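Entry 12.
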Amino acid sequence: MKQRMSIALGLLIAALALVVAGCGGSSDSTGGSSSDSGSNSTGSKATLSLVAYSTPEVAYDEIIPGFEKTTAGRGIGFKSSYGASGDQARAVAAGQPADVVALSLEPDMATLVRAGIVAPTWDQTPTKGMVTDSVVAFVVRRGNPKHIKTWSDLLRPGVQVLTPNPFSSSGAKWNIMAAYGAASNGGRDPAAGLTYLKNLLTHVKVQDRSGRDSLQDFLGGNGDVSLSYENEAVTAQRRGSKVDYVIPSSTIRIENPIAVTTRTKNPTAARAFVSYALSPAGQQDFADWGYRPTDATVFAKNKARFPTPPGLFTIDDLGGWTRVNTQFFDPTNGSITKIENAAGVSTSK
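Predicted 3D structure (tokens):
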């Protein structure tokens, strides 16, 4: 009887040990779409939720630990989520917790302003709410075997292009508008721009859901060229991928916003983190991964790495995002919507 009681007691202790172990903290994923970092034990100040678009994950993997070493960041933990920018904005609008949102473009931030989750004054900062810049580039195979240098080269017979779906990936909107702006002489010849886009999209082999998925598809062997951010090409090279990249003479300047949400329970810590991301230390981390710093001093320090294309233009040159979203990406009447629907490509978000 005593032996049976001892066995039962031993099994009970083992079961309790398993339960305790199961309740312990762990990373949500390794290299996936979400992760935990920092301490959240007794004495921690707060845990911040960072919701970001997919591509800057590698930079935030360095910026977050850097912030945690500062006086303002000591004891702050992080729970980070990365994905297609439009999906991320819609998830936060639907209730996903977020203290800081770092998105691909201004319209995704506008989604959260309309939902009351980001203040309308979010862009009233020295950098107009932007944390990084970049440009649309052509990512090609090592040695550029198909000699792709210009937008017209993408239309050569047999050239296969990858770019994400612009109705799930906001980064893809930058790609589309870079192509349109280059072909339309900065928007001065809309017909030429739309004709080019129709031809370009016939060369697009796959339209993945996010910029990260699209580049990974290219790195896996699909296509001859990937339309992507300059920083994505730099990241791929740093990770050992056998790719080169070309910055066309005419391309668009990408501007990536960041903001503290109105729903954060830790506004002081959240603002301190955004300030660190905009500080020389945070901006240098971004620069090391190929992002063009918004800090003028850090940009000047890294200027040789980031040449300015002679035909560089901005979204404002094309009418601004409000006009562009209506003209090109309206769910019913947008010109890109019609082109994609005719090609059988999904335009649902």
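Annotation: The first strand starts at residue 34 and ends at 37. Confidence is low (pLDDT under 50) at residues 1-32.
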